[in-house]
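Students often ask what a holo structure prediction actually looks like on paper. The answer is less mysterious than it sounds. You provide the chain, you provide the ligand, and the output is a string of discrete structure tokens encoding the 3D arrangement of the protein together with flavin-adenine dinucleotide.
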Amino acid sequence: MNNLFNNETFVVDSGMLKVGIAGGGVGGMAAAIALQKQGHDVAIFEQAREFGRIGADVNLTPNAVHALDGLGIGDALRRTAARPQSRISRTWDSGEETSRLPMSSAAEEKYGAPQLTIHRADLLAALESQLAKGTIRFSARVTGVEQDEHGPRILFADGSRFDCDLVIGADGIHSPVRRALYGEDSPRFTGLVSYRGVFPREAAPDIPNLDSFTKWWGPTPDLQIVTFPLNLGREIFVFATTGQKDWTDEGWTLPGDIAELRAIYKGFHPEARALLDALTEVTRSALHVRDPMPRWSEGRIALMGDAAHPMVPFMAQGACMACEDAVVLSRAIEGASVETLPRALEAYAAARIPRTTRVQEGSLANDWLKQGGNADWVYGYDAWHALDRAQA
Ligand SMILES: Cc1cc2nc3c(=O)[nH]c(=O)nc-3n(C[C@H](O)[C@H](O)[C@H](O)COP(=O)(O)OP(=O)(O)OC[C@H]3O[C@@H](n4cnc5c(N)ncnc54)[C@H](O)[C@@H]3O)c2cc1C
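The corresponding structure tokens follow.
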């Protein structure tokens, strides 16, 4: 079989690993930065032809910002991210505020990092700016992985392959790496469809609390509106869900019907409805989940991010968990050799699975901070020292 990825150009110092990462999303790039900082040779294989401005929001709570600050991308993040003042819960009809958690400086003092909300494309650009030139190979569609006594390899749609010391599957909810390790299974449709849109802040300057993360809790769990600032507060992001059993498409660019959305929320408080009125267009995307997995690694191949633990967005932790995974994985393999990698990857999974399982389940339960409560176990997590604690 030919090999289009030119393995020979990699010069691997002794102790340094040659790493192939399937998927150049948030998790794959964060892992690549962490591993390059340790001196490893890393290549990312991304199916997209380039990064477009697809998607909208990414919510980075202090646990994720702390992980990313340690990777050295804090300044790049803060150039475009907004910094929500508080995390507020409100009741759909009365508008009653049922909880308010101070974020921004209060979170920085308590957790060592603020909450940042950022356009996904800006987060990807900030991550990409920290990678060694040429790390990402675009238009590279991974179809599977395999391993034998010579090591693991990534297989591509064009018939080529990439032989390396370590493979990381960061290839999202439909991960071919996961499928190759654990067999065919499909994500489960939740019966919920999400709408996402952004409006310029000046389009609705009179809506209160636009500098905060606010969740409007509906009369039933399928109805909610979440809003927070993006782009240094110049834009306002809006996310809403409805139950729609007959529509299951997950695409990030499919248009939604804004009139239909406004009609569904017509009974909501005027300040919630004003958010939907300020939007001029929305995308629509069905929400899928998988059950937590008992294993994330086999030999020298490991999963991370949505490939390992996709979740519904009701704790806003999907990207945050991928950032934490990247840091813990890199710490787990520090000093590992080809022989000790399988054990190191098992230690990584053992440290992460209990936490991501709890977050997957908590997200599905959809009651996070509804009536207040202690957010420390999520926001106060220190990925840089998680392994020490798990092993203690
Ligand atoms: C295009 C897109 C837009 C998104 N928009 C939003 C949003 O607006 N709001 C939100 O909350 N979340 C969004 N998400 C999801 C969110 O970014 C992730 O849930 C989270 O960041 C976890 O990151 P991840 O790296 O594990 O997975 P992802 O961010 O999903 O990244 C996986 C990467 O793997 C690549 N990939 C998948 N299959 C293959 C393959 N066969 N070969 C090679 N590469 C492959 C994908 O193109 C993608 O770049 C989006 C995801 C994507 C892919």
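Confidence is low (pLDDT under 50) at residues 1-13.
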